[in-house]
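User: For documentation purposes, I need each entry recorded in a consistent format: the amino acid sequence on its own, followed directly by the corresponding structure tokens. There are two entries in this batch. Please keep commentary to a minimum and don't merge the entries.

Assistant: Recorded as requested. Entry 1:
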Amino acid sequence: MSRSFLNRETQLCMSLSGRPSNIGTRFHNYLYDELELNFVYKAFTTTDLAAAVGGVRALGIRGCAVSMPFKEDVIELVDVMHDSASAIESVNTIVNDDGVLHAYNTDYQAVANLLESSGWSTEYSVAVTGSGGMAKAVVAALRDSGFTRGTVVARNPKTGPALAETYGYDWSPDTVGADLLVNVTPVGMAGGPDADSSPFSDEQIDSAQAVFDVVAMPSETPLIVRARAAGKPVVTGAAVIALQAAEQFALYTGVRPSDDQIQRASEFSRS
């Protein structure tokens, strides 16, 4: 794909992540090319979040995706918290409108859409590992989608119980089984210390009805591989990241890609 049209009018979008991947970069740039939009996207990490967000404002960077571990810390650095972010106190998208930084959370909508399309019974009990910013989005989407019986599994004795209490779920410091197993931790993420691990035991996977993993790289995490082998229906992190990125794309550009375009961009981002 050619980026030969880049010029001084080109608008920059970016991401901030503790462990950047190529997925967002390839996804967004693919669609910029296909739709002939004068944008470019680049992934970054930082050890100075305040300075990085200040750069978004000062340099007129149009959009900034926010990933772990910055989703909550970035709140004090933005100007306007929209409902999707303020309701769960977690930000994954910043849009710069003439120096005013607007914060959104597209993770929530992506998860809610995937739960709806899965057709899974809301009578299922749920176990969700994690209590950070992404976990807030996932638990809120689960609860709002009608999954009322749940457990937040988190070692953190402060954030775990607080998240569980907010949505009427139980809390456990140790992994528990449930009908629907949801991983919202870095366990299974490529390049991480637990890349070859699963947050749930084989026994818990075998007794579950379905499995949902938000880890996007690889899409076939050890948890997803084990769940498929056990014949369980799954939702992968690849599906989550594609849908949330498409929402971000629309916020940044004002253009909403078609389902086919989103699918092609998602496949390209992993090729």
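Entry 2:
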Amino acid sequence: MGHIAFNDYGEAEYKALSGPSVITFKNPSQVSLSIRASALVFEDAESRKLLSLIERVAPSDVTAFIMGETGTGKELVARHLHALSPRRYGPFAAINCGAFSESLVESELFGHEKGSFTGAIASKQGWFESANGGTLFLDEIGDLPLSTQVKLLRVIQQREIVRVGSRKAIPIDVRLVAATNVNLEDAVKAGRFREDLYYRINVVPIQIAPLRNRPGDILPLAEHFLSIYKSRLQTRQPALSAETIQLLHQYPWPGNIRELENVIHRALLVSDGIELRPRDLNLPSIQLGSGTSSAGAVHEAGSHSVNQQTCTLDKALAEMIQHEPEKLYETVNRKLVLGAYAYCRENQVQTARVLGISRNILRTLLKQFGVIQ
């Protein structure tokens, strides 16, 4: 198995083994509690197309725009782009744009001068300066506030940054890789994302298919995670029963690679150590059509369920509208947001994904409803 592991600087370490190619972080245990995918394989035909695109794009210096659901491995793709590029010996910096408040995100990106705001006791480099000569990965770029989007556009155009509290421009040489798990075209139409910035970052779009659409990767990833957690737990590696393999391919994996890793980890803890059986996976039951067991059947069943739910929602909304209650929009909006927030166990990133909005917009709504300060 060709195994490429990335350290904290995006540098790749390659080990020639037997089997499929696996791309991981150098210390995957450090990301085990995050929502990021900690491994990628390229066994499925869809994944091989992705790898071919990465290899063609990597040597150039153009901005790459990675799109994909949470847990599909967007950061690993960004790191692989860096590792295959002429910038491989330069730094690789990664930042989640939704992880900082609106008041701090510009300081994080562009740096600040001493005394430029309360708490700025010393001058500090931003992420653009830290990545100078290398690659900067901006994850969840759709979460950037509009005011920061304007400044980011200027940085991309002028190839220079101005620290907060300074008037001096600093030249930078950075390759930008952006990523999102939301539809930025919809965000542009809704006025949440600048159209000119969208076209600036969408030079080379790279779409990562969800795991359910690349079934050829499921078994190699499962075997990889079995090997990883077998070593960590100091136990033997159980075999996968035929029924377990079938279930792994039938399940739609809404949480993608991240969910698969968690499932394998948990299964190893409860299995007898000899064979991994379907009950060890503890997956939600899947309603398949009569006589079918394909992923397509799962998709059709899910689509039918969504259609039924939409009809029920339409009827409920129609009844509410007929009664003309006060603050109807606010009531419905509040119920939807707080219901999703409770369902996601108050995880803001997951709630934003479920609702199809950015984390910044979600935080604004939660503040408006008095849930957070």
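Summary note for entry 2:
The longest helix spans residues 295-323.
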